[in-house]
Amino acid sequence: MSEKAAPGWYVPSSNPNTRRYWDGARWTDQYAPLDAPKAESSQEGLIAAGWIGLFLLPIAATVIGLVLANRRPVMGLTMFGLSFVSALAWALLLFG
To answer: TM segments (predicted)?
Structure first.
C-alpha cells in the first residue's frame, strides 16, 4: 500500500521554475510562480542617514537661524525653533 502526498503546491520536475497544485489524487491545471528568494535587506544605510539627519540637519538649521536672527529676528527664531523640532523628529524615527 503506497501513501499519497498531501494536497498542496509542489515543484514539478518538468518545470522547476513554477509550482503546481496536487489535490491529493491528481495534478490540477493550477500553476503559480515560485516565490523569488528574498534578498537580505541591509539597514545600515538607513541608520547612517538617520544619524546624519539627527545631528547635521538641526545643526544646519541652528546656524541658519542664528545668522538670520541678526537680520530678520522672526525668521531666525523660527529656524532656530525648527532645529529642535527636526532633532526631535529624527530621534523619534531612530529610536521610535
So the answer is: 46-68, 74-95
Residues 53 and 90 in one domain: yes
Collect all residues with Cβ–Cβ distance below 8 Å to 71 and sequence separation of at least 6: none
Q: State whether 48 and 30 are in the same domain.
A: no
Three cell numbers written together for 85: 523640532
Cβ–Cβ < 8 Å for 30, 24 = no
pLDDT in tens, 41-71: 667 777 777 777 777 777 777 777 777 777 7
Sign of CA dihedral 22, 23, 25, 27: negative
Range of the domain at 28: 1-34
